[in-house]
Amino acid sequence: MQSKFSALPIFQSPNPKTFTPHFVLQFAASISSLKVVWRKDPKLDQAIENDKKWRLCARVIREVLNEPGQVIPLRYFEKRRERLRLPIKIETFIAQNPGLFDTYKDRIRPKSDLVTFIRPSDRLNRFLEEEQAIYEKNEPLIVEKLCKLLMMAKNNIVSADKLIEAKREFGFPNDFLVKLIPKYPEYFKLHGSPGEGQSYLELVNRESEFSKSVIEKRADDESKLTGIRIRPAFVWKLPPGFFIKKEMREWVRDWNELPYVSPYDDISGLTPNSPEMEKRMVGVFHELLSLSIHKRIPVPILGKFCDEYIFSNAFSSVFTRHSGIFYMSLKGGIKTAVLREAYKGEELVDCDPILEIKNKFIELINEGHEERDQRLRVKRDMIQKDMELMADRNKELGFDKHMAYINFRRLMLFPLIPSVHLLTSKNLPLSILRHQISRPCQNDILLSPFAQLQNQCMAKRISRVPFRLEERSGKSHCPKPVSTHDFHNKIKPVVAIYESLGLSRPDLISVLLAQPTLIPRTTINDDKIEYIR
Hints:
The chain is mainly α. Helix content is 48%, strand content 9%. The protein has helices at 21-33, 42-50, 52-65, 74-78, 81-84, 90-96, 122-137, 139-152, 160-165, 167-170, 176-180, 214-226, 246-256, 275-291, 299-303, 306-309, 317-321, 355-397, 401-413, 417-424, 430-438, 448-456, 487-500, 505-512, and strands at residues 72-73, 101-107, 114-120, 157-159, 188-191, 200-203, 296-298, 326-329, 336-339, 343-344, 347-348, 519-522, 529-532. It starts with 20 loop residues before the first helix and ends with a strand.
């Protein structure tokens, strides 16, 4: 079947760079009329999701390393959670990821109270030294990437501030403008001071060995292997179950037959909105993604280089129109352009040497997780042994759960006696006190004066008494075990009461386990026993 472009002059003209205005309008119309429905690729989305945890840890670490002296008070750091997009408290994060930070006590100002500070751990400092060694080992690769980025740009100049924003995508070290650029004056020249918005990095000398794209290198390698000249072409790869309409398939076939335009070639002779300009723009995106360490770049970062690489304002439509070459991921609420051919399922086919840093960082995180899990296993085993010992002891002594529960309630009321005396001094009827102490209570309080008095006695924890009053309807309720109340406000003070009375840990476990809803748990930072519902 003859395609829609087969009769156009470009397929017959010996000079493919000359276009008539009529053809330009036809090609632009053909592009705008083709609609490609976006479809989710779960495996590529999962590849992005897999990096979520270590990226969060990296953000927190960078925040600490950027502080003067690489130390920061914990309470100050807690205020930055929203900016770091950290869903948990900093203290919880440190406990969940041991080995990243050390905590210590110090004063912010002389004669002030001691507060908790955090600093990088020795293990993290060793990792940072390994990271620097990996950057130094791969310095020629980093220089080549920088040269390629500048060679693709208009006038071989790119904003230095934009390169800083994209440094982690291409695997550049944090100080590459300060330490790396001055070492290679034969390649680079820095204009202005970075950070002021008017600094630019210029390529002084174009190396011919850097002017071949990934697609051209692949074609050369295949030609050497087969002995047949292979034409450079994009790899069109659709995931299983993904189909495009017949009209789009014909358009893709004819578009692939167009001559390949290298992103390093001079484009002064190309017409905007022409087929070759479209081919060149796809080639630039392909090369940028190939130079990135994860073979994917967030679209907002690519959009920063519209002026340097001559992208149109609607450049992101390229990723959906050429869905066999790219994939537009919406994971995490951020559009990310992914190079399909670089992935096999969730894994990269060829890993960038700079990714060794990521692998070592993940090892560091996993090492801390294993140590934490080991400590928790030891504590769980200790509690299990105590429970087994107490079970045997209860059988020998004929343990009475009902009496244990009564004693449990009495011990809870023991520290509240001063508060009860305060209430009696207000001339409240004894019956009201009896209801408050001995009856299960409901949110509905019998007398408003009593409720007001409860608020006045908050400092003495009267409002935290874990019992309930009767409803106004007069219906009685069975006493609820203490575990039905908030853990931190109820159970932990009760445990403290037992410990203050000098009860042994086995006795404490026996009494608390008299109610089946109480489950023992150990903390991470100390050896005290806590209980949760």
